[in-house]
């Protein structure tokens, strides 16, 4: 199969982890006889430095021409610590999602059994946890009107959803629930927010079309608690942009680390495959970032954008085998990990590549 892949490393550890992700794509192409071509483009802080824009026109053009995009992360402390900055790396990410129509962000939360000791949650609560989040990605408070008033002393952001935006993500979640355990949990704050009341109304209106799927509604505050108390009660979860952003960072503790969670951002056209984590300034350049979220994002790309199931399984199998062999990056090392098995980013990548080359 011939495919053209755009690699967009972005900022911080984005470059470190997408380097490994691209090596995995190259190994899969060799192993299975595919012809993958690659290009690279700028986004975020590095793009602002080079062009003045967090999403240069050239990057967008290359994104539209690609069959799939491997994305790293954006963000830089310079902007995090300057609330008055007018141009910000994160604007590039949000604009990319809007421009490419990436309204559905799929975030699988799957615990590899070998990582039971990497989490501070009790193993009996964690074992068998397997959740698929559908986070809406092009609406909500991230895209609503925001403004400063009162000479800068008052500020507001608008949480806004239209019916069609809720319908399309909710339908995707119902379809996925049908292929899994036929359970869907919709998360909102309908006891307070009007946009959440619309959300719940839409879920209730669509539910009869999927009578084989059991639907429950949870408020965001209770859902955040239940996720840690009893993660196995969830199967497919659908929620808005802000609630999904926060709940899935929380859910990373079910999988062991932010460095383990991959995602697929899909919509009408191309797909963007990205770890859920950010640019992680605290560990940038130290060579310790966990590349497995990027590697597992490659597996999602192979499966969802290219329909290459066996290739995707080979990647997930390699991750599983490396963990079974006891290798860990620092963030997922547990009390039983042997010190010589704690690897840096590149060394962990090499372990995966060796298995894919075998
Ligand atoms: N998709 C994106 O590009 C995102 C960008 N950001 C941006 O990233 C910057 C840093 O934000 P934070 O709140 O610190 O979130 P973060 O996700 O970058 O890091 C949170 C914590 O998780 C750890 N971590 C993250 N990825 C890891 C990995 N692969 N291996 C090992 N440890 C890992 C970090 O070291 C840090 O302690 C900010 O500028 C923020 O705006 C934040 C989230 C997502
Ligand atoms: C800039 C943010 C919206 C990025 C983020 O936290 C995410 O997509 O998970
Ligand atoms: Mg986030």
UniProtKB/TrEMBL annotation:
Cellular localisation: Cytoplasm
Bound cofactor: record note: Binds 1 Mg(2+) or Mn(2+) ion per subunit.
Domain (Isopropylmalate dehydrogenase-like): residue spans on this chain: 4-352
This protein's pathway: Amino-acid biosynthesis; L-leucine biosynthesis; L-leucine from 3-methyl-2-oxobutanoate: step 3/4
Molecular function in Gene Ontology: 3-isopropylmalate dehydrogenase activity; magnesium ion binding; NAD binding
Residues of the site described as Important for catalysis: 142, 189
Cofactor dependence: Mg(2+); Mn(2+)
Keywords of this entry: Amino-acid biosynthesis, Branched-chain amino acid biosynthesis, Cytoplasm, Leucine biosynthesis, Magnesium, Manganese, Metal-binding, NAD, Oxidoreductase
Positions contributing to substrate binding: 97, 107, 135, 221
Coiled-coil stretches noted in the UniProt entry, renumbered to this chain: none
GO CC, one annotated term: cytosol
InterPro entries in the record: IsoCit/isopropylmalate_DH_CS, IsoPropMal-DH-like_dom, Isopropylmalate_DH
Entries under PROSITE patterns matching the protein: IDH_IMDH
Annotated Mg(2+) binding sites: 221, 245, 249
GO biological process, one term: L-leucine biosynthetic process
Annotated EC: 1.1.1.85
Pfam families cross-referenced by the UniProt entry: Iso_dh
Catalytic activity as recorded in UniProt: (2R,3S)-3-isopropylmalate + NAD(+) = 4-methyl-2-oxopentanoate + CO2 + NADH
Top-level division of the source organism's lineage: Bacteria
Subunit structure, as described in the record: Homodimer.
Function description: Catalyzes the oxidation of 3-carboxy-2-hydroxy-4-methylpentanoate (3-isopropylmalate) to 3-carboxy-4-methyl-2-oxopentanoate. The product decarboxylates to 4-methyl-2 oxopentanoate.
UniProt record similarity statement: Belongs to the isocitrate and isopropylmalate dehydrogenases family. LeuB type 1 subfamily.
Protein's recorded name: 3-isopropylmalate dehydrogenase
Gene it is expressed from: leuB
């Amino acid at each position: 199969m011939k495919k053209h892949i755009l690699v967009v490393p972005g900022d911080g550890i984005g470059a470190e982890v997408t380097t490994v992700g691209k090596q995995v794509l190259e190994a899969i192409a060799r192993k299975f006889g595919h012809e993958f071509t690659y290009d690279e483009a700028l986004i975020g802080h590095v793009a602002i430095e080079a062009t003045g824009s967090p999403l240069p026109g050239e990057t967008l053009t290359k994104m539209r021409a690609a069959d799939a995009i491997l994305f790293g992360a954006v963000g830089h402390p310079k902007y995090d610590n300057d609330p008055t900055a007018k141009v910000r790396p994160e604007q590039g990410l949000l604009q990319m999602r809007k421009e490419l129509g990436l309204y559905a962000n799929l975030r699988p939360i799957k615990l590899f059994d070998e990582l039971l000791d990497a989490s501070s949650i009790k193993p009996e609560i964690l074992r068998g946890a397997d959740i698929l989040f559908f986070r809406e990605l092009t609406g909500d408070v991230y895209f609503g009107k925001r403004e400063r008033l009162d000479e800068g002393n008052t500020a507001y952001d608008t949480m806004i959803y239209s019916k069609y935006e809720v319908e399309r993500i909710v339908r995707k979640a119902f379809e996925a629930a049908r292929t899994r355990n036929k359970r869907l949990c919709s998360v909102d704050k309908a006891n307070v927010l009007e946009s959440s009341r619309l959300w719940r109304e839409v879920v209730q209106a669509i539910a009869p079309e999927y009578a084989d799927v059991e639907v429950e509604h949870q408020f965001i505050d209770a859902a955040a608690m239940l996720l840690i108390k009893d993660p196995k009660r969830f199967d497919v979860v659908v929620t808005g942009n802000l609630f999904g952003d926060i709940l899935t960072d929380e859910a990373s503790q079910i999988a062991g680390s932010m460095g383990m969670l991959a995602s697929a951002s899909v919509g009408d056209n191309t797909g963007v495959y990205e770890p859920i984590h950010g640019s992680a300034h605290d560990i940038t350049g130290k060579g310790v970032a966990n590349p497995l979220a990027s590697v597992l994002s490659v597996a999602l790309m192979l499966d969802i954008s290219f329909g290459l199931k066996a290739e995707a399984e080979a990647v997930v199998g390699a991750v599983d085998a490396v963990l079974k062999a006891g290798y860990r990056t620092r963030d997922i090392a547990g009390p039983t990990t042997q010190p010589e098995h704690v690897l840096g980013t590149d060394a962990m990548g090499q372990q995966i590549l060796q298995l894919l080359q075998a």
